[in-house]
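Lab notes, practical 5.
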Amino acid sequence: MTKNMQWRILVALGVVGFALAGMLPLKEKINLGLDLQGGMHLVLKVDTSKIPEEAREDAPNRALEIIRNRIDQFGVREPLIQRQGKDSIVVQLPGVTDRDRAIELIGRTAQLEFKLIEDNEDLNKQADEGNVPEGYELKTVGKETLLLKKKSELTGDTLVAAEVKFDQSRFNEPYISLEFNSKGAAVFADVTGRNVGKRLAIVLDGKVHSAPRINEKIPSGKASISGRFSVEEASDLSIVLRAGALPAPLYIEEERTVGALLGRDSIESGIRASLIGLCLVLGFMLLYYLFAGVVASIVMLLNFVIVLGMLGWLHTTLTLPGIAGLILVIGMAVDANVLIYERIREELTTGKHIRSAVGAGYNKAFTAILDSNITTLIAAALLFKFGTGPIRGFGVTLSIGIVASMFTAIFVTRIIFDLVTANKHFTKLPMLQMFRKTKIDFIGKRWIAYVLSTVVLVVGISAFFTKGEKAYGIDFTGGQLQEYSFARPVKVEDVRKILYDMGIKDATIQLVGEDKKEVLVKTSEDVATSLKNEFDEKFTGNRSDILRVEKVGPSIGKHLRKSARLAVLWSLIGILLYVGFRFKNVAFATAGVIALFHDVFVTMGFLAITGRELNLTIVAALLTIAGYSINDTIVIYDRIRENMKLYRKATMKEIVNMSVNQTLSRTVLTTFTTLLAVTSIFFFGGEVLRDFSFALLIGMISGIYSTIYIASPLVIFWHAKGRR
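Output from the prediction step:
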């Protein structure tokens, strides 16, 4: 064994060892995303318009610290709380599925005030008649109407403690015990001392909770708030009082809540889809490429280990789209192997020795592998830049998978083949062959393809634009999506009647799942809790659970729509520039990108025709299609460039036809292996990933068609135009 081989083996073992160290133990290295373990993702906007201008700049930072203190006391494990932009705060709460309680805890202003109640009968009578005196306000507590002075005698700014205690004389009813610092205690003592016999209202967020009479001066700086709280309400109120009042109101711009039940289902679906996808791809490679398939299967498993290891080292949060990325990587990981093996097959047919054929196969396939993977990386990088949350996780997983597959396919398999072919008894590399040497006139049928594509595009895009705003999901339009799971199937008409009785007439209702026990409801306002209560009341004996709630404000929706457009546009521009640079030919780049536009618009059209909406997850699929679709095109372009040097007297039409036929087997096989993995996601990955995988299926099928019938013929057109 040569030193060069020893060095290569050590590098391969080192990478695998590094990956295993990052991967194990898996539970400690990779965190599950909110969509897998359940939890809440909130984007909160700090409304600074109602506070003085000189205090606005620091308000978001103060709000962030107060929210952090509240959540820390709430007991959430590993929350994420950080600034986003100028006046927004991102909050992620793993494991928290009681959305109403969490939203109340986070967003409550908690403005505590002590106000004196006016005991002048004339002023009270005047206020009762609708003429509230200047400097006063009317409030109710129970059935009693009170006239309060607007000016607070004391606020919660000087509060140092707020604890839940229990009143033994009222059957252990919980109340909140308050304690002020020395400054607050002095003010409280002064107020109570000057107003013995009067009533003092305790006001929280504008609501009077109690209005006890002052019997004597209270120098201790202690008070209490009662009001028939539950233990949970009293506990949450004490938390927000201890953490302090928010400097400005908060509004939810975006919410994504996933119930624990849906999280568990997503994990099970993801694992099932991964195993099935892995078995399908492994089975095909073993059956079709025989010994070479064994090598590909070994490195594909190594590829899986390297991806998980890198995710572990990066402490990446694994999301459901991230699992989809892992499955997709399984299919894409063998693409490079297919390119290499088909090249080796060609070299063997020329009569070369097995060792020479292997070397030539690797050398000639390298540029096509490099170019095709870089274009997919461009799309993955843009997913990370413009995506949010789970979509970024998909981009990270896809990027790592692409790099890992290049390493295993080019470096590790070469080591194995070099070791095997060093044995003089190893003289053959048998493989099955789907396509013999074909001589199909693909280019001659280009006008039929152009007409077919035009019809499909016109119908699809017309359907998309005809739907208007209905073509977009709530990610881009704003609104709320709620998913409920029932013990038994329900009827759409019954759900619609309940919503209609609630005064909601613009809801979109859809039954999902194989047994139609899950209901998707899309509304323009937040009705998740009230609708759940109505379901419990009207569907007696048919238990319902909230699986997820997604809410996006109109301004966030516009921002996300703009980001999605930019992501797709920059992806296509990036691929155009790279292909143009690599092939030093505008004809190749322009034709390739036109084919990409074709695939993206075909996919969007089919989504509209089948009643599916365009959302962030679908945009991730479109970018993946753009990056992946160019792969086969680059393989053909690489062969065209090679044949242009070999057959200088042939016409461009002859060269393109020859190149398409020569690469037909790898064009079909690379797409087929990836489609095996995507089909696994579609059928076994669960309802959440159904539209995502459907888009990938359509895009990849369109991709193989456009590679042969759009991108390749257009090279002839642009090449002829360039000669004029």
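Observations recorded by the TA: The first helix runs from residue 3 to 23. The longest strand covers residues 159-167.
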